[in-house]
Amino acid sequence: MRVELSFIKEEKGFTLIELLVVIAIIGVLSSVVMVSLNAGRARARDAKRQGDLNAMRTALELFHDSTGRYPSTPDGDCNYNKSFLLGGCLQVLVSGGFISLLPSDPTSSEQYYYDNWCRETSGYILSNQSFRMWANGEFNHNGLAQNWWSDYNIGYTTCLDPS
């Protein structure tokens, strides 16, 4: 009877190099996916900003149709840099039923702007017959500024300067 002893073990599993290559590939793929998701989320937030400006514009036009003017304070100024939610003259849109609530930015409550200044040949003046509002966007759209503008005259646009 012959017995053979085998001292050579059969190797099973992956080498350290193979594992590192697989981990590196997974890391690269996950970073590409994350970048794509972040860009999509930024576009979605910008779409919400556009929708919010359109809703506010509609509410402002309904208010104007009802009262013959746009919201303003007794001294004529209705300037809200940073937020629609700061109260004051825009609350009449909610209390009058022109909009259910004043919108807020998807990332912060301080990203929308509103004023009732209009441009004349001599410069900007207060007017209850005009308004401007805008939001800071995140995504660069076709090389234009990342701001969305809307006013009583031109409606909703993307532009470098609304004046």
TrEMBL record:
It is found in: Membrane. The chain crosses the membrane at residues 20-40. Keywords: Membrane, Methylation, Transmembrane, Transmembrane helix. Its main location: membrane. GO terms for biological process: protein secretion by the type II secretion system. It holds the Pfam family N_methyl. It is a single-pass membrane protein. GO terms for cellular component: membrane; type II protein secretion system complex. InterPro entries: Bac_GSPG_pilin, N_methyl_site, Pilin-like. PROSITE patterns: PROKAR_NTER_METHYL. This is Type II secretion system protein GspG C-terminal domain-containing protein. The lineage of its organism: Bacteria, Candidatus Zambryskiibacteriota.
